UniProtKB/TrEMBL annotation:
Gene Ontology molecular function, alphabetical: ATP binding; ATP hydrolysis activity; transmembrane transporter activity
Bilayer-spanning residue ranges: none
Keyword Transcription part of the UniProt annotation: no
Lineage of origin: Bacteria, Bacillati, Bacillota, Bacilli, Bacillales
Protein name: Putative ABC transport system ATP-binding protein
Family membership noted in the UniProt record: Belongs to the ABC transporter superfamily.
Length: 234
């Protein structure tokens, strides 16, 4: 399989007052085309920092990050913004939908800047929301809002789908349904999904599990027996 993502000796340091905080310290890993990857670790381990650097929402202090053959650690702010807008679909824990746009408009608004974007209505149908397209976020349940957020990310037809604790605000059943949706999208579209979580049960869904501890890689495991979202329990 082609290498899609590569982190080479990546470090991230935050300065809070005079005190430097090493959020990442010498992180190396690679991810192949089409892989479903779970980044696992305790609170504060550095998971979101990895995802944010990968998605161009944050920058590394040192080291190199390659995505689809492009070194994103070399991009200036303007090109990084374009990379983020065109290549990355984000799904967050708290959905981040625009409250005064309905479901359809939320998806269209995000997708329209992307050249190869997909049809918003088709994607909303795919995530099981064809009868809610005119609803505003406040009229939708948490699980439905997360489906809109996933539709919004997918409609951009991005290179990568990055998900930061996508089930963190959802109950067990709804959370599993959202995981099933991400799994189906990964299998059907062959899009690479990188999902950050502290929930080790979710790791069973992955092709590759990257464990992070105190800003370093603790282990990288290839999972030969990937479980379906329906089959995992926590
Ligand atoms: N903007 C920031 N300024 C200062 N320190 C930060 C900042 N962002 C993150 N950190 C620190 O970097 C470390 C890694 O944070 P990160 O958010 O990546 O962890 P995480 O594994 O995603 O945790 P959680 O599961 O709680 O979200 C933590 O010690 C955190 O306090």
């Amino acid at each position: 399989m082609e290498k899609l993502i590569e982190f080479k000796n990546v470090a991230k340091e935050y300065k809070v007052g005079e005190v430097p905080i090493k959020a990442l310290d010498g992180v190396d890993f690679s991810i192949s085309e089409g892989e479903f990857v779970v980044v696992l670790g305790a609170s504060g381990a550095g998971k979101s920092t990895i995802l944010n650097i990968l998605g161009g929402m944050d920058t590394a202090t040192s080291g190199q990050v390659f995505v689809g053959g492009q070194e994103i650690t070399k991009l200036n702010e303007k090109r990084l913004t374009r990379y983020r807008g065109e290549k990355i679909g984000f799904v967050f824990q708290f959905y981040n939908l625009i409250p005064n746009l309905n479901a359809m408009e939320n998806v269209e608004f995000a997708a329209e800047v992307c050249k190869d974007h997909l049809d918003a209505k088709d994607i909303l149908r795919k995530v099981g929301l064809s009868n809610r397209i005119k609803n505003f976020p406040s009229q939708l349940s948490g699980g439905e809002q997360q489906r809109v957020a996933i539709a919004r990310a997918v409609a951009k037809n991005p290179l990568l789908l990055l998900c930061d604790e996508p089930t963190g605000a959802l109950d067990y059943v709804t959370g599993k349904a959202v995981l099933k949706l991400l799994e189906d999208l990964n299998r059907e579209t062959k899009k690479c999904v990188v999902l950050v979580t502290h929930n080790s049960a979710i790791a069973q869904m992955a092709d590759k599990i990257i464990k992070v501890k105190s800003g370093r890689i603790e282990s990288i495991t290839i999972n030969e027996s990937r479980q379906s979202a329906e089959g995992i329990e926590w």
